[in-house]
Amino acid sequence: MRIATIQCPAIADDAASASEAVVQRLRWATEEGVDLLVFPEAFLLGHSYNPETIRSRAREASAAALADLCRRVAAFPVTLVVGAFEVTPPHIFNSAFVVEEGRIAGRYAKAYPNEPGVTPGSDFPTFVRSAIRYGINICNDANHADAAEQIARQGADLILYPLNNMLPPATAERWREKSLANLVDRARQTGCWIASSDVTGAAEGLLSYGCTAIVAPDGHVVARVPELSEGAAVYDVPERQLLPVLPAA
User: Fold this and answer.
1) Are strands 91-100 and 103-109 parallel, antiparallel or unpaired?
2) Hey, which residues does 197 pair with through a beta bridge?
3) From its phi and psi, is residue 210 left (phi > 0), alpha (psi between -120 and 50) or beta?
4) Which of 11, 53, 80, 210 could cross-link 48 (Cys pair, CB 3.0–4.6 Å)?
5) Residue 246 — pLDDT band, cuts 50, 70, 90?
6) Contact 31, 153 (CB under 8 A)
7) What is the pLDDT of residues 119-141, one digit of tens each?
8) Could you read off the pLDDT of 82-116 as tens digits, one per residue?
9) pLDDT score at 239
């Protein structure tokens, strides 16, 4: 399975522009024979740690933005993973959506949210594309080995990590090495391929170097987008015989 993970600037409160960015990269991915395309955490309307902003973005995503995106990408054969805050009354979740042929085929809600007012997810679904079973963790989940283990024990080959490392500059510097180290640790821990997608650049006093990479099960980084650059990490993840799915603990 050919996977591509995107590193790009964050887009805040502009679902139309974010959707256009997704469509442009889906065109490229289709031409390149990509099977699975992954975008950063909460890419559709932007990430935030402000409770009011989170609620507003969650309402917009749930009311119209997600449905509009699905309509725009329906013609593409590539499986898309894209994130947004969403409302499921009375809860707000930080979710990543698996979109196939214009429909939401599944979702994962961040198990360890560090955003105020966001409810932790409790399910760890897995999905299959091109004989590869994969699951999703989101950003801060990478600090928690048990979140990756929930996916690995279901026979997954691959764990996706949508990230958003847009932080105050001093904090971004502290996490510059740690973000990649976490991905390497999760690969070695689970024996899974690991693939991350992150934002990059500076905006409103915040900075993200970008940690977009694909890591082999032995911890070797096989593809990475350079820091502070836009681009995609691309790799052909080898297929193996699918194992029976075990229920998440």
Assistant:
1) antiparallel
2) 162
3) left
4) 53
5) low
6) no
7) 999 999 999 999 999 999 999 99
8) 999 999 999 999 999 999 999 999 999 999 999 99
9) 81
Query: What's 33's DSSP letter?
Result: T
State whether residue 175 is helix, strand or coil.
helix
- C-alpha–C-alpha distance, residues 87 and 113, integer Å: 15
Query: Which residue reads 């009375």 in tokens?
Result: 90
Query: What pTM does this model have?
Result: 0.95
Q: Which long-range contacts (CB under 8 A, 24 or more apart) does 222-229 make?
A: 225/5, 225/7, 225/200, 227/176, 227/200, 228/200, 228/201, 229/7, 229/200
CB-count burial class (<10 Å; 0-12, 13-18, 19+) for 146: exposed
**Domains of the chain in sequence order:** 2-236 (3.60.110.10)
> Looking at residue 244, what is its pLDDT?
55
